[in-house]
Design the sequence.
């Protein structure tokens, strides 16, 4: 075993890359759930974002346009879900699962011509002065722009949810939709916007997988990341900064266990391989023991104005 | 998660099979895949073979397939559904489908089953596999010659004999031409997860590997290597030609088409019998993809090696070989028996690290 082979700086840098897709998807889903809607279609929206982002990047040669397209595609798919659950009042769990199935099928249909095609790469930002800071520079300031975008989204989500009136209304709708309705807030509209935001974030997360992390289009390539994102939202007790913590923790342990294996650490591989899940569950248990879970009161319940 | 996957698989199955209107006089052939048909690797090649069956038999055959079937209990239901839908012959194409296939074969004695890479057989259940390890000899040789850091990264799927055999065969060939070579092995515990495969390749590259081999199904490690530059890789299961000439310098291609056509014909003729087939380069089931981006003399050596392994002149496991703990396995000039190869659960001497318990 030679743990000296593991370069902690590179490890931290690849941690941020590994965590970004689930971070984006999870922060979007956190907002959706805060508004009282449970959308289990994250995987479907991610994979759709992945393929649409990839296709647009290949055709335009511009990854940035691809990311925008991925966000729009994720939002469009989520609005389909929104119309079904908010206006037609279908069951949220079943509709979410259907959305995942639909997204997986749709993406492989769209993706057929793009198998084996290479994507234009997203240039890393070499932030001039900051990137040269010893130690911290390479970890924090030499990533592709999407890593920073994801962090900005987390910060903005935190700010809006906890420091603005719009955030208060959104939380109110999620806690008790009848009360919010009685106060005159448009429950359905608020939720529709939240769902669209969640879809856009999931789309971005998916595109990050196909444009940066892997980078190519392979059918089914998100391989369950959407489900992890759903778990992280619960893990984080629906709080934005904890979503960041959860995503980085999960991504970090995933990358660390691969590095430990490559370095030949004398820890049984089975234990290394399950460690991201075990640690996530452990933290979840510890948080639960402390009492406050913060699950929105109306989460998953169907809202009908006349009831 | 498991429940969700079950739901997904059953829903997908329902949609997949509903379109298959049944025609009585056609032979119906089913395929159970472990990954998506667009993985660009293992499942892609099985699906190419399915298409070859369709093309060969035209109207006389009808094929159905179910992709991304999880290994384990879920597989049993997927295979059962396929048998219930009237399939005459079902190919289950991954090692982890072994016990489910055995269980379903027992319940449907009139349906013929073919399980890839396993070792459990029955009256109506054949096994078939390819000697992928023969191709690993060529890869190991190239890897040993090309590495400058003497560090070779290997992304392995599961600790099963087939994968362990591949690692051993590669190592023996590499170490023969470069005694200083070291292997770093990552067990990904998945056949298909592009993100994880990319991360694994990244971890190996960061620790100085300049040759990456994979025994997982997607092209993600190829992309990671290409991005890193100055690294060579090998196509796995499929040619992965889009990464020519570098990083991919050659590949192991699984060519199942002729075998599938053979077996479907046997069912049509009523001559199908349970058997166990294990074919390699010589039979054409394993092909070595075009060698690209290498020095001319090395290309020649590799081609020569391929031909010698194919003709049976050279066996991948020829003694003297010791096991990892130093106990002798094969004596000078002795070659490994198929039995030994099929149940291989040890590393050969020189490899570091332990094989995780399965």
Sequence:
């Amino acid at each position: 075993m030679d743990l000296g082979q593991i370069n902690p700086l590179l490890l931290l840098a690849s941690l941020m890359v590994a965590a970004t897709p689930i971070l984006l998807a999870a922060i979007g889903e956190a907002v959706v759930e805060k508004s009282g809607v449970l959308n289990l279609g994250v995987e479907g929206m991610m994979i759709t974002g992945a393929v649409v982002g990839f296709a647009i990047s290949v055709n335009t040669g511009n990854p940035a346009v691809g990311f925008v397209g991925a966000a729009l595609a994720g939002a469009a798919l989520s609005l389909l879900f929104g119309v079904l659950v908010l206006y037609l009042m279908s069951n949220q769990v079943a509709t979410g699962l259907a959305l995942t199935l639909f997204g997986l099928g749709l993406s492989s249909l769209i993706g057929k011509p793009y198998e084996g095609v290479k994507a234009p790469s997203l240039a890393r930002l070499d932030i001039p002065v900051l990137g040269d800071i010893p130690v911290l520079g390479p970890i924090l300031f030499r990533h592709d722009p999407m890593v920073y975008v994801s962090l900005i989204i987390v910060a903005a989500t935190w700010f809006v949810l906890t420091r603005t009136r719009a955030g208060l209304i959104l939380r109110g709708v999620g806690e008790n939709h009848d009360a919010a309705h009685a106060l005159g807030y448009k429950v359905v509209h608020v939720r529709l916007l939240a769902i669209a935001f969640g879809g856009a974030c999931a789309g971005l997360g998916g595109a990050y997988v196909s444009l940066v992390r892997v980078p190519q289009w392979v059918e089914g390539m998100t391989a369950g990341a959407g489900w992890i994102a759903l778990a992280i939202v619960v893990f984080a007790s629906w709080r934005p900064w904890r979503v960041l913590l959860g995503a980085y923790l999960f991504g970090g342990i995933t990358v660390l266990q691969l590095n430990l294996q490559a370095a030949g650490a004398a820890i049984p591989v089975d234990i290394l391989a399950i460690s991201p899940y075990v640690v996530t569950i452990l933290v979840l248990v510890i948080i639960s023991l402390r009492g406050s879970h913060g699950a929105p009161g109306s989460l998953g319940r169907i809202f009908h104005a006349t009831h | 998660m498991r429940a969700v996957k079950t739901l997904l698989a059953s829903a997908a199955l329902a949609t997949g099979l509903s379109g298959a209107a049944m025609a009585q006089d056609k032979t119906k052939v089913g395929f159970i895949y472990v990954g998506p048909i667009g993985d660009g690797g293992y499942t892609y090649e099985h699906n190419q073979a399915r298409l070859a069956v369709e093309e060969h038999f035209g109207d006389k055959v009808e094929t159905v397939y179910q992709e991304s079937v999880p290994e384990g209990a879920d597989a049993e239901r997927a295979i059962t559904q396929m048998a219930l839908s009237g399939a005459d012959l079902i190919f289950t194409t991954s090692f982890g489908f072994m016990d489910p296939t055995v269980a379903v074969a027992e319940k449907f004695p009139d349906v013929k089953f073919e399980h890839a890479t396993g070792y459990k057989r029955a009256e109506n259940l054949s096994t078939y596999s390819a000697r992928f390890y023969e191709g690993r000899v060529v890869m190991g040789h190239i890897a040993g010659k090309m590495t400058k850091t003497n560090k070779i990264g290997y992304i392995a799927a599961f600790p099963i004999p087939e994968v362990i055999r591949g690692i051993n065969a590669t190592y023996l060939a590499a170490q023969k031409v470069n005694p200083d070579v070291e292997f770093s092995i990552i067990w990904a515990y998945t056949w298909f997860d592009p993100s994880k495969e990319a991360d694994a390749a990244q971890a190996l590259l960061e620790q100085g590997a300049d040759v990456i081999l994979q025994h997982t199904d997607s092209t993600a490690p190829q992309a990671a290597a290409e991005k890193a530059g100055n690294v060579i890789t090998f196509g796995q299961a499929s040619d992965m030609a889009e990464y020519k000439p570098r990083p991919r310098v050659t590949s192991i291609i699984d060519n199942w088409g002729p075998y599938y056509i053979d077996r479907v014909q046997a069912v049509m003729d009523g001559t199908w019998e349970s058997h166990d087939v294990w074919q390699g380069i010589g039979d054409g089931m394993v092909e070595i993809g075009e060698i690209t981006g290498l020095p001319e003399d090395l290309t020649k050596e590799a081609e020569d090696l391929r031909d010698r392994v194919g003709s049976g002149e050279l066996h991948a496991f020829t003694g003297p070989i010791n096991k990892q703990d130093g106990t002798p396995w094969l004596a000078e000039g002795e070659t490994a028996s198929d039995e030994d190869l099929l149940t291989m659960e040890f590393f050969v001497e020189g490899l570091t690290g332990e094989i995780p318990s399965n």
